[in-house]
Structure formats: C-alpha cells, structure tokens
C-alpha cells in the first residue's frame, strides 16, 4: 500500500485494490468490462502520486473508465510504488503488454525510459506516454499538451483576482515540463500587471523526492508564500497541490487548480469556495482517443499535441465567482483570442 498522505481520499476511488503484481504495484481493475487477460483492452500505469490525486492521474483514470465503458473493452490500471526504479516501470509495462493489453499507456514523463525499452520488445502493441515526446517509434504515441497556454490564462486570472498585486506559483518538481506552467503563468500575470510580485518555488529537484506526491510539502510551501503576502496561488504539483489548496482555503485566499477541474472534485469539496479556477488539460481525452484509435485499427503514433485551439487545454469555469466576474472574463477572452490567432506568443521557459 502507498504511504502517501492524502486529503479525504476515501471519496476518490471507485474500486479497491484487487490484484497485487509482484514489484509492480496494485491493479484496481482487471478486464472489468468483460475482457480477458489475452483479449483486447487498455493498460494504464499511473504516475507518482497514483490514483486519488484529484488531478493528473485521476484525469487519466477518467479516460480509462470511458474507454472501458464506451468501447466495451477490458482494462487494467496499476498503481506505482514508493521509491520505485525504472526497472520497476519496465516490468509493469511488460506485464501489461505480455498480457495482451493494447494500448499500454504510461502516465507521466517518468515513464519515458521504460516506454522506449518495452515498445521495442512489443512492436505490435501501441504504447502511449503522457507529457513526454522523447520516444520516436512507430508504435509510440506521445500525448502532450500546450500547458503554457492554459497557464497563461491562469496568470491573467490571478492578476485580475489578487487584491495585493502579489501572487504565487508552486511547481512539484524542477523539470522542463513544469517550467512551461511557470513560464506561461508569469507571462500571463505580467500582461495584466507588469509590476506584479510573483513568488515561485519548486518542491523538489527530482520526482523521486516526492514533489508530485506530498501534500504536506505543498502545504508548507503555500504557507510560506501566503506569509510573504501572496493571495493567489497556482500549483502545478499533482497530489502535492492538494496541500496548496488546503492552505489557501484555511487562509481564505485563492488557489488555482491544475490538470482537472478541482472545484468539482468531491474530495476537495470543503475547499472549493477558494478554488478560483483550474488550468485543465484533457488527459482523459488523450487516453480515450488512443484506445479508440487502436480499436478502430488505426493506432495513433507520433506527437499528438493538444492546445487551446483544439480544446485540449483551458480554464475551468465551475466556480460562479470566477464565471460571473465580467472584467476577468473579458480579459481572458482577449488573451485566449490572442493565443489562438498567434498575436500572443506564450513562453515555455
């Protein structure tokens, strides 16, 4: 079992751990829609933080569930282990591929080395990796996003919402992917208020140190930024972002969620009045679409990148305080139009 502390995790998962795979974590679904181990189905291996993060992994799980239901295929989704190695990831993906699951999807850039190794061994299986485009193989789909674009909009929203002209950014791990979130956010905020003060912090240098899986680290970082004067906090930190949201709510300042619409997450319901919006990316759609392409006999391969123009990234408007703020919405509409027509070039670093 994972030892990561989670906020209100009881309301998250719809199925309990049912199968334990040697050195590979647990599987919560095993051909639940009638498929068999040798039949056609989808295999999903979660990123650090696992299912229940109310963010990145849960978005992938939503796509997994939709594929099982709509496409009437089997599936197996597997949790990571604390402190695991690339060899553990290789073994996990190999078990899925060997069992006949197709496609096999690694959730997160940490799977890049494992996908490269296993895809070469199983050329007839389609592999997908979310948030990485290093692997260039005929049977690999790189499912990536223009996170900087939605983050730019988040920066605009933060600059419009702050009462102190002082906001914050908290990244889970100091890596190029998360730099995209920070770059877009800072640029968007400064497009509204050039002299706005922005606190920035990364929780860890490597994923193995828990930057994406430690709500306590997120909470501590948020406390520091709020103490420094920030009254809007944007976290791109996976499960750790729950701690940021919790801290923001306790201090009655705004939090901006990430990846999923965190205002609508049941496990975060008691904090939702302080979740201004969320910078979303359609991870669920990426997972589902890859599974459908395989079922249709036309597997997607190469770089598949989602953007504002394709509807693959954006801002959630579930919070009425956000949706009904006319000035904020006008600024966002203008920014989105500029990004789409190319007049606004969003930075990635």
Structure description:
With 349 residues, the chain is of the alpha/beta class. The chain has ten helices and 14 strands. The chain has helices at residues 56-71, 86-98, 112-121, 147-161, 176-192, 215-228, 241-250, 283-295, 320-323, 326-341, and strands at 19-21, 25-30, 41-45, 74-78, 104-107, 127-130, 140-145, 166-173, 197-204, 232-236, 254-259, 275-281, 302-306, 313-315. The strands form two sheets. It has an eight-stranded mixed β-sheet, with helices on both faces. Strands 9-8-10-11-12-14 form a six-stranded mixed β-sheet, with helices on both faces. Helix 1 (56-71) links the parallel strand 3 (41-45) and strand 4. Helix 1 runs parallel beside helix 8 (283-295), helix 2 (86-98) packs parallel to helix 3 (112-121) and helix 4 packs antiparallel against helix 10. It is globular, with a radius of gyration of 19 Å. The model is unreliable at 1-38 (pLDDT under 50).
Spell out the key features of this protein:
single chain, 349 residues, alpha/beta, eight-stranded mixed beta sheet, six-stranded mixed beta sheet, 10 helices, 37% helix, globular
